[in-house]
Design brief:
Number of strands of chain A: 21
Radius of gyration of chain A: 24 Å
CATH class of chain B: Mainly Alpha
CATH topology of the largest domain in chain A: Rossmann fold
Helix content of chain B: over 70%
Mean pLDDT of chain A: 88
Low-confidence stretches of chain A: none
CATH class of the largest domain in chain A: Alpha Beta
Order of helices and strands of chain B: HHHHHHHHHHHHHH
Largest sheet of chain A: 6 strands, mixed
Mean pLDDT of chain B: 82
Radius of gyration of chain B: 24 Å
Order of helices and strands of chain A: EEEHEEEHHHEHEHEEHHEEEEEEEEEEE
Low-confidence stretches of chain B: none
CATH superfamily of chain B: MetI-like
Distance between the termini of chain B: 18 Å
Largest sheet of chain B: none
Number of helices of chain B: 14
CATH topology of chain B: MetI-like fold
Helix content of chain A: 10-25%
CATH architecture of the largest domain in chain A: 3-Layer(aba) Sandwich
Strand content of chain A: 35-45%
Oligomer: heterodimer
Largest interface: A-B, 26 and 19 residues
CATH architecture of chain B: Orthogonal Bundle
Strand order of the largest sheet of chain A: 6-7-8-3-9-10
Number of domains of chain A: 2
Amino acid sequence: MTIVPQSFLSLQDLTKAFGKVIAVDKVSLHIEKGKFFALLGPSGCGKTTTLRLVAGLEKPSSGRIFIDGRDVTALPPQKRDVAMVFQDYALYPHMTLRQNIGYPLKVRGFPKKSIATRVEEVAEHLMIADILDRLPSQVSGGQQQRAAVARAIVHAPKIFLFDEPLSNLDAKLRLEARAFLKHLQKELGITTVYVTHDQAEAMAMADEIGVMFAGRVVQVGSPLELYRYPKNRDVAAFIGNPPMNILPGRLEPKAGGSQFSGEGYTLFFESIHVLEDTRAYLGFRPEQAQLMCDLKDSGIPAQLYAVQPLGSEVLITLLVGTETVYVKLYSESLPALPDLVRVKVDPSRLYLFDSTGACIKVPK
Amino acid sequence: MKRRDYVSILPRSVAFAFLAPAVLFLATFLIFPVIWVLVISFTNTALTGPAGTSPSFVGVSNFSQLFNFARWMRLGEFGNALVNTVIFVLGSALLGQVPLGLAIAMLFHKRRGLSRELVFSLATMAWILPGVAVAFAWIAFLDKDFGNLNAILSVFGISKIDWYFDFPLYSIILFNVWRGTAFSMLLFSAALGNIPPSFWETADVIGASAWQRFRDIIFPLIRPNLFTALILVTLWTFNVFTPYLITGGGPLYRSETVSMYTYRIAFKFLEFGRGAAVAVIMMSINFILATIYLSLQRRRSLYGR
């Protein structure tokens, strides 16, 4: 007997194989009602396939999907009461925005009058009421996106599915659309699954993020949890802008703790105990590092590579051995830096990953 | 259309020199013969008989003979051939090839694998094999006593049918549907392939039925291709001559189309003047169809995609 899960949307050991390639590998997720959930991962990690499984556009090889306590695994898309916004919006080019938005209602056989009222209502809400009679090709990318969202919400689905809906917008519009979507989602309270490869997007919008690598969900947590306590090196190196710096080295047991030796520096960790000399990785966030010009200072020796002023902050690229390291300085003026510097990080802010990539030390 | 300014990179004379071979070629093999046909359609030019040595100008008498409404519907006359052609085109192009091609394309749109390969290969083969070979195959296929079709039908207890005698026009319609469906099939297959997958999937998520999806989404998107297929296939079917190799237009001119009629008058009776008159009418019909086609082509970028 299957146990019906408590969460609104539940994926249980969901697996999808295309031939020999396993795109989605035993993914289990539990998403509460009204939450904005982002599936984050690099391209090809299986996040879109997972979304398509939820939509019913793909049949899972094994595993189950529950929506609102109902097993929908075997149901076709239209019986799942979900709405999906595609990356290309999939607005029908021969229909006006009005016809596009009203189409889900027309298909469901609503009377013409109530379709018209509902479309007006939704369009008013999304601020596209004045362009309803145009064709998709006659409106801007941002307006197309709103129309696609309008078509998705018009019949009040149980779940919203977004497949990288912002990737076709330019940077400025994307920022605007992010806020718009987040606001709308909170307002409507519709449970949302949002697929993206852009960690900034996921961090900014989601209540909860699931990070996927190679078909598996590696970690699920709130944006800040993922930022502060990445479970492994992959997650750490994926989240943050720029992401966490990770330097390879060796960890060996020493009296009262262990010593990490990297390229030209050693660091002592009191609380970490290892049995033998092992490969390990040191991690720290660009925004938590400082630069020391005095070479007599302790710290990680680094070579200056590039200085990028970004307005409120300065992004500095350095080389430690052959590894690239970013340091973010909150300064509006350009610092005068020598070619060789030391990178200094408060020891409590350091991360350590073992040879398998698992995180063995997080900041206190 | 906006006229664009252009910068000439070559002197005009050089440009004409480059154009000359193509113009000469077209003039020799296309424009000149067309004018020649037009000219002799007003004469009684023939290969034999008194007119053979000294053809003379006869005005519009060749045309008025064709359209002699007192007798033009008799078997073997132009009107009969014209009616046969209309039935042939309607049956094999508009009701046969185009809908069938669309149906096959729709059916196999999302299917990959052996069945699709098989159907597409067979249909394409029927299209590209030499006419003489397929004509012979069809004579064999529909033969009354030894044909495959009657052999198959006999299994179901249907007695022998003399296809080419009792249903000559329907037989060549059937043949032509088999022969030419591949074009529509490939055209629609490509057109469907151009529709982004997300369009189909959105329809799936929205919950449109197969019919709603076709009517509201697929059909409007492939309508330009449908026009292309209809006009081109009509044009080709109108001119097609291969069925002559099967029925020879018979029996008793019952399957004779305009192209067969032209051939008979010009090259069997060797009355070039009269044959040219029919050819002129055929060319005019072709010209009208081609004009419709080209003007539709120009309006095709309707959706700006």
